[in-house]
Amino acid sequence: MILLPILLQDLPTNLMPELTEDITEEDTRVYEFCFLYPCTLSQKEESEFLKEIEKIIEETGAKQVSKDLWGKRGLAYRIKGHDEGNYVVYHYEMKPRAIIDIDTPLRITPNVLRHIVVKPPKGYEVTNFSEGFVQWLKDRENAVDEKKKEKEEKLAKRVAEKAKRQVKRVAAKKEEEVAADKPKTDKKQISDELDKLISDDDLDL
Amino acid sequence: MAKKPQRRSDPRGKQCPFCDKQVAYIDYKDYPAIKPFIDYFGNIMKRYYTGVCLRHQKMLKNSTERARFMGMMAYRK
User: B66: nearest CA in chain A?
Assistant: First the structure.
C-alpha cells in the first residue's frame, strides 16, 4: 500500500458543509441565533458584548427581525465554571452563504459560552419562550406548595382525629371504672342483706 | 389458571400527544413542552411508552439535543 502525502493546501479550507441547493445571491432567509453568556458581566460590559455580536452578524448585511433578552437563568450543568447564564435570541434575515463567514468569529468572541444557529421551519412565528418558562416554573412551585399544604392539612386532620379518639378512650375508661366500682357496692349490700336474712331467727330451713 | 387483570393501560394504544395538537415544529427553547418526554436520568423516553409518532420523535430528539447543548437541559442526572 502506498501512502500518498497529503499537502495542507489540498485540504478544504472551509470545513463547514457546502450548500447544495440552488441559491441565488439575492435569496434571503430568516435565521435564529441563540447565545449564552455569563451573568456576571456588568451592565456596561453586557451592552458592549451585545453590540459586538450584532456588529459581527450585521457586517454581512443582515437585517434584524427580532431580539429577545431572556435574562438570568440557571444552567442544567456547569459551563466554564458558570452555574447561571443569560440568554439572547436573535432573528436575522440574511443570505444563506453569509452564515459560513459568521460562525468562526462568533466562536472566537470572548464571553460567548455557547452559540447556536438554527434555520426555523416555514411558517415559524417568533414566540417568547422565556415568559412561558417563568410562568411554568411558578405553576410548578405553586403545585408543590399546594401538595405540601394538602399534606399538612391531612396530617392536621389525622392528629385531630387521633386526639378525639384518645379523649373518647379516656372517657370510656373512666366510665368503665365507674361501672366497675358500682357493682362492688352492690355486692356489699347484697352480702349484707343476705347476712341479715340468714341471721334472721324466723327463718325455717 | 385465571389470567391476572392488567394493571397499566396498553402502551400500544396511546395517541401521539404532538399529533393531537398538530405540532409542526418542536422548539428547543420550549423547555416545558419537551420536559414530559425526558425521564429522571435525562434520557429521551422510548416511543413505546410515550406514544409519540416517529415523525415527532425525530423532532423531539433534535430539539432535545439542541437544548442540551445550550445548557437548558441536562445530559445526565
Answer: A116
Mean pLDDT, rounded, for A9-27: 62
Sign of the torsion angle spanned by Cα atoms B32, B36, B38, B39: positive
Q: By percentage, how much of chain B surpasses pLDDT 90?
A: 12
* Distance between CA atoms of residues A146 and A148, nearest Å: 5
| Nearest residue to A103 via CA among A65, A53, A66, A38 | A53
Residue of A nearest to B31 (CA): A133
- A128 is written with which cell numbers? 417568547
The residue count of chain B comes to 77
Contact between chains at A76 and B73 (C-beta distance less than 8 A): yes
CATH tag, B14-69: 4.10.640.10
Chain B residue nearest residue A70, CA to CA: B29
State pLDDT tens for residues A162-202: 999 999 999 999 998 888 877 666 788 888 888 888 887 77
In chain A, what residues touch B27 (CB-CB under 8 Å)? 127, 129
Stated as kind and residue range, the H or E segment containing B30 is none
Contact pairs from chain A to chain B, CB under 8 Å: 45
| 3-state SS class at B49 | helix
Please tell me the pTM assigned to this model. 0.67
Cβ atoms A68, A133 nearer than 8 A: no
